[in-house]
Design a protein that fits this description.
Number of strands: 6
Distance between the termini: 17 Å
Number of helices: 2
Radius of gyration: 12 Å
Structural class: alpha+beta
Strand order of the largest sheet: 3-2-5-6
Largest sheet: 4 strands, antiparallel
Shape: globular
Length: 79
């Protein structure tokens, strides 16, 4: 992907294997529990770009993730 490209937030969460389904990703975002680069996000279609920081609570833990690269597909967990 080239500079300036982005991926939907729900798709990124699913591709990165943070959630099992896109429906769960949409629910996580729409419940207002997600911050994207410091601002609260309530739309699953919010764009995620390289350099963004995601912070959210999931299964009792607070996770902070910096986006180093955008995934092209949902690959095996080892990726």
């Amino acid at each position: 992907m080239t500079e300036g490209e982005c991926v939907r937030l729900d798709k990124f969460l699913w591709f990165a294997r943070i959630v099992k389904t896109r429906a769960l990703a949409q629910e996580l975002v729409e419940n207002g529990r997600m911050r994207l680069s410091g601002r609260i996000v309530e739309r699953a279609a919010a764009p995620v770009r390289v350099g963004d920081v995601l912070s959210f609570a999931l299964r009792g833990n607070v996770r902070v993730i910096r986006v180093e690269a955008l995934p092209i597909r949902r690959g095996p967990p080892a990726e």
